[in-house]
Batch of 2 targets.
Target 1
Amino acid sequence: MNTQRLAALRISPLHLQQGLFASLALMITLIVVQQVAHWTQKQEMSSIHPIYIHSAPLAKASALKATDVGMNTQSVEGAAAAIEEAPRQQSWVF
């Protein structure tokens, strides 16, 4: 039954070969364009955002004074109290 439909369309092996070749050419073209876009994007990203070579030593960056920690805790507690005093809005959670 299917062969009768294909025979009615008159698709020759040459047409089938040409269609497959066109599909292959299109696929290769799309892959190449995607790869070129990837390469250009990679080059733009490397030229726009320089990599930081020098950074602070870990000991300097992570060393905190006890007074700094105490002040930070007080400011957080004050902010938490202000949030609790604010009126709450009703919201639906599903």
Target 2
Amino acid sequence: MSAFLGAIGFVGIIVGIVLMVIGRIKKRKYRGGIIAIISVILFIVGVATTPDSVGNTKKADQTDTHKVTPGKITNKHLLIDLAVRSETLIEKYDKIDNVKVDEDNITAQKMVDQKDTTGKIYKNVYKVTGQYSWKDRRYDYELIISFKKNNIDESGSVLKYESETSGPVIDVNLTTAK
């Protein structure tokens, strides 16, 4: 709708100017000035209400590679990437191959900064819980990982890994960092 208003305003400005010029030449009033003023207002309203498409990914809370604020992750691409990362870690820690994690079988969230008992602070902490498939059966798992940068494609440290098949493998005692 805002693009329509902007386009009508732009066309109206041109028509108003043309009518003003014709009115000056013929010495008659064609109301070109009023049409031009109303069209300028429509054009400004159209431009002001147009959604900003430039830079939306910078303002977005979730992108394909990270989440800005703590909370549940709903971005499909981010969930897929976390599922693939989970598959790799499950195969490593459970010592099995051909694991499949479907993004529909996991929930993920970005957590607030965490610290361990030594006081080391972990930033960019993501928690993934769900199920993986192996040999036609489903198993539960939980994974907490801290990335060096807020980008799940970067390297990270596994802070907790626990699955139904292996039990707790890694479990750093974490508390909320203040």
